[in-house]
């Protein structure tokens, strides 16, 4: 028997030259499997599918229970069960039979048994224990095919605790004469390394032997282990650099057998693997890097064929060149390569080019400069994925100078892609982020709403915003931040007319009036509300409304607001002393009524009685901020109030306030005759694009910055302006300063595909100021248990604090401990565990655990908590604390 | 709707045991990172890997699925529907890579059949794109012009082929002859019987 099999395996190459007919047509369509497949192809609805599979599962259940079922039938049954599971219907009763088939079946049946096991079970399944003996038996079989399949299943899944039982046998296979057995043994050991690295520590020398195996397949398999080992601990494997370089040189040079070629490119995936290993080895190590410069250059040179797979290699090569210690000559070539990618008409290559660029700008933001125009073209690309990749690139080059423009681009992207979601998200941003938000954000948002041609899409967005705000105002408004109320007022004032005519036109007005009356509304917000009301009054919807009272009032307000004299006559200034009531008051006093007390006096009395203050809390908005958002030239003029009030607007808004409206330089949106055409004012709209310093347009700019794409097309002024504002600061600043907001929006974009958006929003925009951590004293053991039981987590790299007399990890953790009152549970080597608990806020009393590890120059932090908001919130505070240090 | 979250939990569940043991061994051994590379590994945020491979037809029916990261069986159909929708909505002139939740999809269309591979962020998209083609070439070689029905009627064999190409989310063999060798040997045995 074994002889036959040996022959079969060795005879394979000759077998392959024959046109194999082993495939289709063997199965008779009348078999049970054939019927099932036929049934599946004829399905037209989910309901039908459910019925078909339920029936199938019943039939399988019956068959496996029958003692007469042969192993041959069992093989077919397993394939049917695989089908059921593939469609999402659990067939757990068949798992045990899969194992039985692997134990008792003949070779082909055994293979299907193993296959079913690997598809049905997961690595922690206890059923796997039943397989150990079978695997052991097959590993020791004289039939090579059985050894092969046992090794295959072991390298897919094996119970960690049982590794010692089979390890010696697997190790033995490393010296097997057949390459396929050696190769599979190496892969099995790789699996052991992944699930239980301690178990294979003693055979590292054998890995080296595998690396030097005369068969390229065995060598390739060993590279998986080495990639992992080197990634974890590059220092210990520097001596392998020479070997890796030699292997790559041989592969690139075409020294492998021809059947390793793919479209005449020698073992491309092997090349990619080797390039990854070299990247890990040469990272931050000049000596090692120097050893690989030649082979990297050769790889770049060799991969000139016009085929996707060579581009895949080039991409990896570029990444490696930018990861290892830099060599200017190589960097130039790699940059040129990226340029070819980016400029390629092939969309997949363009994508890869942007991705490569995104990778390299993290090291040198200036690399984006030669590609400015292409990047801007990609920003308007019809393919959303390209656009998104471009935004990621821009996100990486965000600095303090171009942040406004880049955020605006990100928001624009959101708007285009996800109208409804965008408004909802911004609602959450405003209501949670509220008054601590940078003023740029509401400004950008309003500009987004207002910009653009008046097409259906824009109108839908606005209408949706209006509708969502109306429903918001109908609810509890006391908790909405002032900034948000201002945004709401502006939008309602400007776009309420988009609402359906049949809806009560007075409703918006009433909602605004309610807002005006509420005591928590700040004076500034009131002025916004009044502005909105004024716009509404002059809107034809109201002044031409069928509701005569409303129409009357609107007309009156409009006329009164335009005519001061008339107003003074109709509504004379109030007699503040109320002298005309004197008679009434003295009469009442004489009748025994309590004398009048001023509100101030009443307040004092109250304090004495109950010691409770009924005054609203002081506003968190600094006055300077609140007034500048209207007058600041850089804020969009669309924030302005109606200019139809012209001269007497201040009177109308409010007399007592310190924040008065300044309307000079403000766009006129509403005139005497109603809405002014947009074009009229478009020219005077000051946009930040023009105002931002644009070194790229100045004559002194370095030559690289003025480079244009070879397309020869003269890019229009607009694009160049955009370029100058996007890439501003790149030339002068080497350090890329990331601002928190773009990263937040970026997270949005990253998550906007996720189905459950409200959760994302909740997670991202927790009420930040509420965080008050206190130390949570736990033992290391408890920490471990808690860690495993928490489901919400977050990972992020933080900057390390460096001091002279402390380890960076200790220094950083001390800083965090000092600022945020965290409890440092334990520090071991380059790792530390920290715990805290929250006193207030959404996760009151709940713990949050941090696992910190020093990783290169940064601190990789992994946070876990039972409450979804905690990790993000705490992370934000950690970031803040560390930046302040 | 909740897929992304529950999916994360699954992934964490897959990692957690490793982490748990890692930390315990770390503590009992009294420190020393070299004793627990698994912890390190689990914390490495950038594991380059293939997460799943799907073969789906234009009607969105799954013809084959293979997961390298644990996803609950009940959640697979909705994930697959979602993935196919993403790929079907793409135009011919758009790129073959799609962002999907926290990973990427690489897809390639053959007649009415889509092959979609879910990969981690750090994987090389174009190399996976070509890996798919290599896989199809292997199928072509074995079935001599493979069709959707070939795959359906030989689901087990296609799985055996995939098991030779990808293991644990890594590419382990790309040499066509070597990929087919074990399966051809099995066929030979079956014929002899």
From TrEMBL, chain A:
Domain AP-4 complex subunit epsilon-1 C-terminal: 774-883
SUPFAM superfamilies assigned to the protein according to its UniProt record, in alphabetical order: ARM repeat
Subcellular location(s) of the protein: Endomembrane system
Membrane topology per record: Peripheral membrane protein
GO cellular component assignments: AP-4 adaptor complex; endomembrane system
Ranges for region Disordered: 680-718
Bias type Low complexity, positions: 685-711
GO biological processes: intracellular protein transport; vesicle-mediated transport
Gene3D superfamilies noted in UniProt: Leucine-rich Repeat Variant
Keyword Nuclease: no
Keywords: Golgi apparatus, Membrane, Protein transport, Transport
Principal location class: membrane
The family this protein is said to belong to: Belongs to the adaptor complexes large subunit family.
Subunit structure comment from the entry: Adaptor protein complex 4 (AP-4) is a heterotetramer composed of two large adaptins, a medium adaptin and a small adaptin.
The protein, known as: AP-4 complex subunit epsilon
Record organism: Oncorhynchus tshawytscha (Chinook salmon)
Automatic annotation (TrEMBL), chain B:
Keyword Ribosomal protein recorded: no
SUPFAM superfamilies: SNARE-like
InterPro entries: AP_complex_ssu, AP_mu_sigma_su, Longin-like_dom_sf
GO CC, alphabetical: cytoplasm; endomembrane system
Entry annotated with the keyword Ribonucleoprotein: no
Every AP complex mu/sigma subunit domain range: 49-189
UniProt keyword list: Membrane, Protein transport, Transport
GO biological process: protein transport
Location of the protein in the cell: Endomembrane system
Membrane topology term: Peripheral membrane protein
Role: Component of the adaptor protein complex 4 (AP-4). Adaptor protein complexes are vesicle coat components involved both in vesicle formation and cargo selection. They control the vesicular transport of proteins in different trafficking pathways. AP-4 forms a non clathrin-associated coat on vesicles departing the trans-Golgi network (TGN) and may be involved in the targeting of proteins from the trans-Golgi network (TGN) to the endosomal-lysosomal system.
Assembly and oligomerization: Adaptor protein complex 4 (AP-4) is a heterotetramer composed of two large adaptins (epsilon-type subunit AP4E1 and beta-type subunit AP4B1), a medium adaptin (mu-type subunit AP4M1) and a small adaptin (sigma-type AP4S1).
Alphabetized PANTHER family for the sequence: ADAPTOR COMPLEXES SMALL SUBUNIT FAMILY
Listed name of the protein: AP-4 complex subunit sigma-1
Organism encoding this protein: Oncorhynchus tshawytscha
């Amino acid at each position: 028997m074994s002889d036959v099999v040996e022959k079969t395996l060795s005879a394979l190459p000759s077998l392959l030259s024959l046109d194999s007919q082993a495939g289709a047509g063997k199965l008779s369509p009348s078999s049970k499997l054939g019927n099932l497949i036929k049934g599946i192809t004829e399905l037209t609805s989910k309901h039908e599918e459910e019925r078909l599979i339920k029936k199938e599962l019943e039939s399988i259940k019956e068959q496996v229970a029958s003692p007469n079922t042969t192993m041959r039938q069992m093989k077919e049954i397993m394939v049917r069960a695989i089908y059921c599971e593939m469609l999402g219907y659990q067939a757990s009763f068949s798992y045990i039979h899969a194992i039985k088939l692997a134990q008792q079946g003949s070779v082909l049946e055994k293979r299907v048994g193993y296959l079913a096991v690997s598809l049905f079970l997961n690595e922690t399944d206890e059923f796997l224990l039943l397989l150990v003996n079978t695997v052991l038996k097959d590993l020791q079989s004289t039939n090579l095919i059985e050894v092969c399949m046992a090794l295959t299943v072991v390298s897919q899944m094996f119970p960690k605790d049982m590794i010692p039982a089979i390890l010696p046998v697997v190790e033995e296979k490393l010296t097997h004469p057949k390459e396929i057995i050696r190769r599979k043994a190496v892969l099995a050991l790789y699996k052991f390394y992944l699930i239980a690295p301690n178990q294979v520590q003693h055979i590292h020398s054998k890995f080296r032997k595998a690396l030097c195996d005369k068969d390229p397949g065995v060598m390739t398999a060993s590279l998986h282990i080495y990639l992992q080992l080197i990634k974890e601990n590059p220092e210990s494997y520097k001596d392998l650099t020479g070997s890796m370089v030699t292997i790559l040189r041989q592969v690139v040079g075409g020294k492998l057998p021809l059947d390793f070629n793919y479209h005449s490119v020698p073992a491309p995936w092997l090349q990619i693997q080797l390039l990854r290993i070299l990247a890990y080895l040469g990272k931050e190590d000049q000596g090692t890097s120097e050893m690989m410069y030649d082979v990297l250059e050769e790889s770049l040179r060799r991969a000139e064929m016009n085929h996707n797979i060579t581009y895949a290699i080039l991409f990896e090569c570029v990444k490696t060149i930018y990861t290892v210690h830099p060599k200017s000559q190589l960097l130039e070539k790699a940059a040129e390569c990226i340029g070819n990618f980016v400029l390629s008409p092939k969309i997949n290559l363009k994508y890869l080019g942007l991705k490569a660029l995104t990778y390299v700008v993290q090291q040198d933001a200036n690399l984006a400069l030669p590609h400015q125009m292409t990047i801007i073209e990609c920003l308007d690309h019809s393919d959303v994925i390209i656009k998104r990749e471009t935004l990621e690139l821009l996100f990486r080059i965000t600095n303090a100078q171009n942040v406004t423009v880049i955020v605006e681009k990100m928001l624009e992207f959101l708007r285009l892609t996800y109208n409804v979601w965008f408004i909802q998200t911004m609602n959450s941003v405003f209501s949670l982020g509220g008054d601590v938000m940078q003023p740029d954000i509401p400004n950008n948002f309003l500009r987004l709403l207002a910009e653009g041609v008046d097409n259906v899409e824009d109108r839908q967005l606005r209408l949706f915003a209006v509708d969502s705000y109306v429903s918001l105002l109908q609810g509890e408004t006391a908790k909405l931040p002032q900034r948000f109320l201002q945004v709401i007022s502006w939008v309602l004032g400007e776009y309420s007319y988009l609402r359906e005519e049949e809806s009560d036109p007075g409703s918006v007005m009433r909602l605004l009036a309610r807002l005006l009356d509420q005591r928590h509304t700040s004076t500034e917000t009131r002025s916004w509300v009044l502005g909105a009301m004024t716009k509404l009054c002059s809107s034809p919807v109201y002044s031409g409304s069928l509701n005569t009272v409303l129409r009357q009032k609107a007309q009156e307000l409009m006329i009164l607001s335009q005519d001061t004299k008339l107003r003074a006559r109709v509504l004379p200034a109030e007699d503040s002393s109320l002298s005309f009531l004197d008679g009434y008051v003295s009469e009442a006093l004489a009748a025994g009524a309590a004398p009048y007390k001023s509100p101030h006096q009443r307040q004092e009395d109250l304090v004495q009685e109950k010691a409770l203050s009924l005054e609203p809390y002081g506003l968190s908005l600094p006055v300077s901020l609140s007034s500048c958002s209207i007058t600041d030239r850089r804020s969009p003029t669309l924030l302005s109030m109606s200019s139809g009030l012209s001269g007497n607007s201040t009177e109308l808004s409010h007399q007592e306030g310190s924040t008065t409206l300044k309307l000079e330089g403000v766009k006129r949106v509403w005139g005497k005759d109603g809405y002014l055409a947009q074009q009229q004012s478009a020219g005077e709209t000051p946009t930040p694009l023009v105002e931002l310093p644009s070194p790229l347009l100045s004559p002194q700019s370095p030559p690289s910055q003025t480079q244009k794409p070879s397309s020869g097309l003269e890019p229009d002024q607009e694009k160049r302006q955009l370029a100058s504002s996007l890439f501003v600061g790149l030339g002068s600043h080497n350090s890329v300063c990331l601002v928190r907001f773009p990263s937040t929006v970026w997270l949005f974009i990253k998550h906007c595909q996720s189905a459950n958006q409200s959760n994302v929003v909740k997670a991202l925009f927790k009420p930040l100021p509420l965080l008050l951590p206190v130390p949570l004293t736990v033992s290391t053991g408890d920490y471990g248990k808690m860690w495993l039981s928490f489901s919400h987590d977050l990972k992020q790299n933080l900057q390390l604090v460096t001091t002279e007399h402390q380890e960076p990890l200790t220094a950083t953790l001390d800083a965090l401990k000092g600022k945020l009152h965290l409890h440092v549970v334990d520090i071991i080597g380059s790792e530390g565990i920290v715990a805290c608990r929250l006193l207030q806020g959404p996760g009151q009393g709940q713990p949050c655990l941090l696992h910190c590890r020093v990783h290169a120059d940064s601190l990789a932090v992994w946070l876990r908590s039972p409450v979804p908001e905690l990790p993000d919130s705490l992370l934000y505070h950690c970031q803040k604390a560390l930046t302040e240090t | 709707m909740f897929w992304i979250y529950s999916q994360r939990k699954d992934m964490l569940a897959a990692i957690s045991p490793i982490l748990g043991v890692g930390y315990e061994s770390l503590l009992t051994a009294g420190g020393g990172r070299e004793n627990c590379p698994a912890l390190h590994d689990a914390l490495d945020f950038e594991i380059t890997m293939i997460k799943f491979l799907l073969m789906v037809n234009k009607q969105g029916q799954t013809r084959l699925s293979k997961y390298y990261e644990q996803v609950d069986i009940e959640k697979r159909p909705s994930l697959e529907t979602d993935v196919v929708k993403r790929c079907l909505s793409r135009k011919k002139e758009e790129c073959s890579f799609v962002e999907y939740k926290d990973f990427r999809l690489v897809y390639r269309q053959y007649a009415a059949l889509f092959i979609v591979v879910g990969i981690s962020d750090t994987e090389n998209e174009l190399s996976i794109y070509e890996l798919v083609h290599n896989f199809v070439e292997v199928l072509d070689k074995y079935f001599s012009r493979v069709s959707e029905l070939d795959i359906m009627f030989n689901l087990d064999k296609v799985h055996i082929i995939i098991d030779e190409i990808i293991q644990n989310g890594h590419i382990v063999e790309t040499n066509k002859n070597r990929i087919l060798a074990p399966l051809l040997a099995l066929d030979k045995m079956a014929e002899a019987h």
